[in-house]
Amino acid sequence: MVPRGDTDLDPAAYGEHIADVYDEWYSTADREPEVAVAVDFLRTRVGAGPALELGVGTGRLALPLAARGTTVVGIDASPRMVARLRDKPGGSEVDVVLGDFAEVTAPGGPFGLVYVVFNTFFALADQDAQVRCFANVAAGLQPGGLFVMEAFVPDVTRYDRGQRVQADRLDGETTHLNVSLHDPVFQRVRSRHLTLGPGGVGTYPVDVRYAWPSELDLMGRLAGLELTERWAGWNGEPFTATSTSHVSVWRRPQ
Ligand SMILES: C[S@@+](CC[C@H](N)C(=O)[O-])C[C@H]1O[C@@H](n2cnc3c(N)ncnc32)[C@H](O)[C@@H]1O
Fold this sequence. Notes:
Layout: H1 13-26, H2 32-43, E1 51-54, H3 62-67, E2 72-76, H4 79-86, E3 95-98, E4 111-116, H5 127-140, E5 141-152, E6 163-171, E7 174-183, E8 188-197, E9 200-209, H6 213-222, E10 226-231, E11 245-251
Helix pairs in contact: 1-4
The protein binds S-adenosylmethionine.
The site of S-adenosylmethionine has 21 residues, from helix 1 and strand 2.
């Protein structure tokens, strides 16, 4: 028997739970400079476009990118996240396909740029889904088109005997905790972001299957893509052995 690990991951679960608070938590004023730099980075790599965002969510990056004149298409599994995007100014400018980005193809291609940010690639539950995603991305790119990914570099020292409980922040009367279980064989971390406050207890699932940059590069090679850039952040910071995140660019050869 070949162990498969726990793959009961619903692609819509994260977004359906978090949609009401996502922008309040992650689309905050202090993050605006980083969004602006990320949009600049993407703008300079989109060529003649169009662009496709995997896991477009509430449009945190897609909307400012579209506002700068790029045609942006998105895929997302969560109807509630997409409803948030639709309600925003410019929301009707971004076409969104509802579905799993490892499986569905978006209309409007081939794309000059496909991108996936904020660790969203790791939402795919296992290596097979991640390999399929790379293959679909490669098939949807124009010759010379680019695939950009922003993701964390795994750090398994975070876990003590396969678990971690972390106080994330105190927000007024509300305490934010993160409770995680780590499976190093399948490279999975199942987490629950818990909020404890006057309104009661909130629980938000965040389940990921992480991969090191070297494994992502191998997925790229399997899909016929070549790594052309790797930075530690959107500002072009050098990527080193101590970097905790990366912005990587793979290219479909001409
Ligand atoms: C962390 S949010 C990022 C949203 C947006 N890209 C941003 O930067 O704010 C992850 C998004 O990916 C979506 N998602 C997660 N797994 C997915 C999958 N397998 N297929 C499609 N969308 C998925 C979620 O619904 C959510 O909207």
